[in-house]
Design a protein that fits this description.
This protein is an alpha+beta fold. The chain contains three helices and three strands. It is 45% helix and 16% strand. The chain is globular, with a radius of gyration of 14 Å.
């Protein structure tokens, strides 16, 4: 619940920054918060693993450093999931490449964690702020 709340605040902050024209955003990586891992749900550990996989794949395949990626947010559940990847406007990325990286990451983590997900119920958003 705490991670979902922080993710919501993060997305709201990104949206507000995009609306008011300011360009500084402080991103807090909630995936590094390990204090409640033993009590975490299978979904939250899956989302954390997916977040890390997407971050690693984008930095490797799109030749970007992790600081060039504004934010990655994974939200929802195994039946209906949304993945948002945000970049600053000045970062040159090909949306179709990022879309494919996210899809491949979801497939890889789903197979690793033995989770079945329907592609129709996954929403991928690529945003620039």
């Amino acid at each position: 619940m705490k991670k979902a709340f922080i993710s919501g605040i993060l997305l709201s902050s990104i949206m507000l920054v995009g609306c008011n024209g300011e360009s500084e955003v402080e991103v807090i990586d909630v995936s590094e918060n390990k204090e409640n891992d033993e009590n975490s749900s299978p979904e939250s550990s899956f989302f954390s693993e997916l977040h890390n996989e997407i971050m690693g794949s984008i930095t490797e395949q799109a030749n970007l450093d992790s600081e060039s990626i504004g934010a990655i947010m994974v939200d929802g559940n195994f039946k209906d999931m949304t993945v948002s990847v945000s970049f600053p406007k000045d970062v040159k990325v090909v949306d179709t490449l990022i879309q494919q990286i996210v899809e491949d990451s979801i497939k890889k983590v789903s197979e690793k964690e033995k989770v079945t997900m329907s592609k129709e119920n996954i929403t991928i958003k690529i945003e620039k702020y």
